[in-house]
């Protein structure tokens, strides 16, 4: 990793800023900690389901974390200003570590989902506070390079996550995917305690608790609706539609509250700003794509291809490597040429192509062909994710810098939460419908269908199950491709704005 050059060095020597050469690695470590836990679970999901049962609730192990981390993102931005970024960041790490330790001792799927939600309450603070800290000390003209490295670390975590998750599941236990956070988190706490010297002047804020409550209610109801429809509850269920109505009421309440609040979580005037609105919408769709694909690809590799958890982690390398390399390259190119619009256009196009190709996967598809598809997906995601944050920070007023950064991150996280829940429902519905067609009604399948149990089924039954499984994934990726077409169309509406020098 290159050392920051002259401009960063000058910033480092400025007495009013934390020393960048020490602060930057500390923030990277926190970013690694937060990003690692979004992906380390993916290769372990089939094993967790095999031990704890609950295939229908599989996506909630990911969704619970994403949902709670999404809800608290806007609050952490305000808390950082009110109490100081250092103490808020340390509190978020401690909460994250407590959640991780408790996840490791969960005894059933319900406990695990609830404790993942607790872990997310801490995890949501890690990403947003690190990004706000960088925006404090680096001007946008230089920030492309730094954001590129942040994107690279996010990519690195997505590389290490499935690999590390697979290794731990295979050689120790799935519980170690949570315990591994403890030493990393303690190191992050020690480094931040030693080197993070933020501004001491705290800003007095009015916290918009009502806005946060309405936002939490809206997200929870919408995700419950998308994940339960047609799986846990039939589409004709009054309870299901009542949940959706409550979600819409909460959205109305949120908009009303944001108009009245002294310091709204999400100032509605931001949505009149073209770049913020477009970046938020594109980020939402990219969140759907990223978390949807990272959840279901390891499942396909273990169930259909018979990969072990660690092999499935290794087989994710083309996607993660593409994301890592392209994030760093994109950041450097933007800093050099001062333009960024072309990257979201190209990136969303590549993501759409990759999703269409993944929708064509068969049981017999050679693994090297899948590597190609995943590589294209990684390159596309790497061209979009950090660029949207940079575009927002470059165009909003300075007084809205923190809330706009957290807002753009918020929409990507909401996309991830809704995407995993909705794709989980599409997958469960598709699998159940295909099994009904292919497997005789009197056939009993094991309760906990982990990869090992599936491969021990009688040959004819196993072949039918795998066919149904692959078919259900086709629907998931075809749905994702259709959604990404919208992001591609929106990316053309972005405009290049000269990068600020201050």
UniProtKB/TrEMBL annotation:
Record-annotated Major facilitator superfamily (MFS) profile domain positions: 23-499
The keyword Magnesium is assigned to this record: no
Gene Ontology terms: cellular component: plasma membrane
Localization, UniProt: Cell membrane
Pfam families: MFS_1
Keyword list, A-Z: Cell membrane, Membrane, Transmembrane, Transmembrane helix, Transport
Membrane topology annotation: Multi-pass membrane protein
Spans traversing the lipid bilayer: 22-45, 57-76, 88-107, 113-134, 146-164, 176-196, 208-227, 239-256, 276-300, 312-330, 342-363, 369-392, 413-432, 468-494
Chief place of localization: membrane
MF annotations from Gene Ontology: transmembrane transporter activity
Cross-referenced Gene3D superfamilies: MFS general substrate transporter like domains (1.20.1250.20), Multidrug resistance protein D (1.20.1720.10)
CDD domains reported for this sequence: MFS_Azr1_MDR_like (cd17502)
Name recorded for this polypeptide: Drug resistance transporter, EmrB/QacA subfamily
Originating organism: Paraburkholderia phenazinium
